[in-house]
Amino acid sequence: TMQDDGVEKWVKGVCRFCGYGCGVYVGVKGEKVVSIKGNPDAQTNFGFLCVKGFLAYKSMYHPDRLTHPLIRQSDGNFKRASWNEALDLIASKFKYFHEKHGKDSVAYYGSGQCTTEETYSFNKLWKAGFRSNMVEGNPRLCMASAVGGYISTYGADEPAGAYADFEKSKCLFIVGSNMSECHPVGFRRIMRHKRNNPDVKIIVCEPRKTSTASIADLWLPVDPGTDLAVFHSMAHEIIKNNWIDQGFVERHTRITDGSKALTLEEYGKFLEQFNPEAVEKITRCPAENIRQAAQWFATSGASMSVWCMGLNQRTRGVWANNLIHNLHLLTGNIGKPGADPFSMTGQPNACGGVREAGALSHLLPGTKPVANDAWRAHVEKMWKVPPGTIDPKPGFPTMKMFESLGAENDPNKPIKAMLVCTTNPAQSLPNLNKYLKGMDDAFLVVLDIFPTRTTQFADVILPAAFLYEKGGVYGCSERRSQFTEKAVNPPGEARADLWIVAQLAKRMGHEKLLPWNEADTMKAGEKAWNDYVQITKDTGHTLLGATYQRLRESKTGLQWPVPSIDHPGTYKRYVKGMDPHMERLQKAGTIPSEATVYFYEDARKEGKANIFVRPYQEAAEMPDREYPFFFTTGRTVEQWHTGTMTMRIPEIARSHPNDYLEIHPDDARRNRIAMGDMVKVVSRRGEVTLPARITDGTMPGVLFTHMHDQAISRMCNFVCNDAVDPGSAEPEYKIAAVKIQRVSGP
Ligand code: SF4
Asked: How far, in Å, is the centroid of ligand 1 from the Cα of 401?
């Protein structure tokens, strides 16, 4: 039972942390949020919350909250400023850089934590107002490879199915995801499903025996980055044993190496090199585990894969995603209840605000590329701007953007100014040492609710509102848009991002593009939302029927496609009778009326999905004599991202106050490391010093730490690799080669 703490009203909302999208009620007493409880009607969490969601409101009242704008003075100190002073300064600097150094000299770096209305507004201001595609966001660092995987395989982003498939699945293949800690409420559903149905098989593929792996029927231990060989090997077993769904493969797929079509026989021949014995040598995963995994996956009748950053944050993240899709396509495990390739997302609105509303340098709202002539023309029409306004050339992806950021007089740094919104790149970028100077040298504006490592490099700091102080729409991992009502006012002079972006637009002469320049964020939000959703009309991801009113009234939100106001939303895409877009295309004659499954968007011919034959490639940096260990990072259940909010929740800060280094007992012994010893971890890029935690939960040769610590000496990203996937431009956070040295006892 929970205490109400004198709550006077409960306001509907969404959890602020993680991409799972738990529905909440925010308890208000007077002018203050005093409690949060799970929303029992929410179809994501059915009333359950993890510790972060339950305690989120406590971060709102930490004394560190930013409550007024700050401008850096020539002596380096920050001075309190009025909103007018701060916004005028930003506008005049941005105008100056535009005139002197061109439209692409001012960048926006956003986040999967802003509401869709906010991200959409910044995106529109930059792409239509400034005519610049220098728009990026931290989702580039977490799900760009998943986007690349979905688009290259099916022609459209985001999963076909939903969380409802967890309980319908007979085999769950969880790979590159410590779901029990990173999406704990979703994992709870899987645990319950397993408890009620002991025959359901759970397979976990991970270099660590995580708490997720602890409930698995089968663990596939793999050296970081080698799992591509395991996926190939599973495909090998599936074809060799004729576990394929022949009809599905023939009707709905084509096998390709990216340039030419291949037959199933040719694919099978390619896979011979990945027989389980050969793959055991590459990966350290026992051959019999691979065989067993392939059999369970292929023959269960309803298999679902769930993955996250372990697959995406890789130099071959897109390929890893493609290979998971291959397993589903070979066995027909898509489009049926309980059968789905499902990528989880890390942030609460990475899917809604950034993927769907297209706030990356190569995208436009509606998830289509800026390079797509027809879509550009469509968006220009919707935005009522002259044809040719939007630059067809993509801007820079995140790592290149930060590499290009620097001083005005530095000819090698074309980006002179950046607005950073609700994210903390000075702690979260990989290979941090390489990027801090650029942030320091450039004109940097940071919008956040707390001082962060990034605000230390800022020229102007803008105090923002917490989600429950402004409200808006978040879209979670399962294509579900959910609404948060504004519960209370922000503290001091802190303001909602939507107001801030509209004020900036006004000062830069683009008021017409963002005609929602009003203090009431609910009213402004509705205008911005309507402006956005009209762009998605008649597409496979339409939100046209998800009006503000419906979202506000709904207890659980709506899953797109939702083409009209009487449509209930879509649980499964690509399937006749379930997907309204497919139905529409069948009526129009674009899709044959007899088709039962159809992957329909863009370049896919005959509605077929691609089974990609991808070569094996290991990580950009592998252990060697000098750097003999793998180093990998992840999250803990209590903390979130760089800890700027969760570390300010007293109960959470106490439960996980600092990060530590997980090391296998064999490695500890060989290096004379005891529990609690301080250990220096050194890569080719930087170092951290962490207390040792000796555990057989990690494989020998693999070191692990979390990514939440606030102390510079323990920030893992100094060590991590910034090499990127050539397809998605997502960096390889998950794999670095390091050496270690014991520096002191506990
Ligand atoms: Fe919030 Fe994610 Fe926890 Fe749910 S699982 S309460 S969305 S942090």
From this structure: 31
Mean pLDDT of the chain: 95
Q: What percent of the chain has pLDDT over 70?
A: 99
**467 Cβ closer than 6 Å to some ligand 1 atom:** no
What's the token pair of residue 713?
A: 């000496």
Longest dimension (CA), the chain: 72
Which range is least confidently modeled, 36-40, 98-102, 241-245, 603-607? 603-607
Give yes or no for a contact between 425 and 445, defined as CB atoms under 8 angstroms apart.
no
Q: Which of 49, 58, 180 to mutate to test the pocket of ligand 1 (most atoms within 8 A of CB)?
A: 49
In a domain, 25, yes or no: yes
CA distances to 277, 328, 395, 593 from 238, in Å: 15, 11, 41, 31
- Residues contacting 553, CB < 8 A, separation 6+: none
Residue 18: CB within 6 Å of ligand 1?
yes
Which of the four pLDDT bands, split at 50, 70 and 90, describes residue 563?
very high
Q: At residue 1, does pLDDT exceed 50?
A: no
pTM: 0.96
Q: How far apart are CA 60 and CA 211, in angstroms?
A: 30
Q: How many angstroms does the Cα of residue 51 sit away from the middle of ligand 1? A: 8
Give the number of residues written for the chain. 746
Query: Cα-flanking dihedrals φ and ψ of residue 549, to 5°?
Result: -60, -45
Name the residue of 22, 635, 645 to mutate for ligand 1: max ligand atoms within 8 A of Cβ. Answer: 22
- pLDDT tens digits, one per residue of 137-181: 999 999 999 999 999 999 999 999 999 999 999 999 999 999 999
Count other C-beta atoms under 10 Å from residue 625's C-beta. 6
Q: Is the dihedral of CA 241, 193, 179, 692 positive or negative?
A: negative
Ligand 1 atom nearest the C-alpha of 185 is 5
- How large is the average pLDDT for residues 257-274? 96
Contact present, 214 and 185 (Cβ < 8 Å): no
Residues 500, 462 contacting (CB under 8 angstroms):
yes
Q: Which long-range contacts (CB under 8 A, 24 or more apart) does 535-539 make?
A: 535/365, 535/366, 535/378, 535/379, 535/382, 536/356, 536/365, 536/366, 536/560, 537/563, 538/563, 538/584, 539/366, 539/581
What b/e string do you get for 216-247 counting C-beta neighbours within 10 Å, with b at 16 or more? Answer: bbbbbbbbbbbbbbbbbbbbbbbbeeebbbee
How close is the Cα of 68 to the center of ligand 1, in Å? 30
Q: Please check whether residues 32 and 163 belong to one and the same domain.
A: no
Give the CATH number for residue 189. Answer: 3.40.228.10
Check which CATH number belongs to the domain holding 730 and give it. 2.40.40.20
Contact 119, 475 (CB under 8 A): no
Range of the domain at 128: 101-140+349-517
Q: Is residue 43 part of a domain?
A: yes
Residue nearest to atom 4 of ligand 1 (CA): 22
Q: Last residue of a domain, which of 343, 360, 390?
A: 343
**Distance between CA atoms of residues 445 and 457, nearest Å:** 9
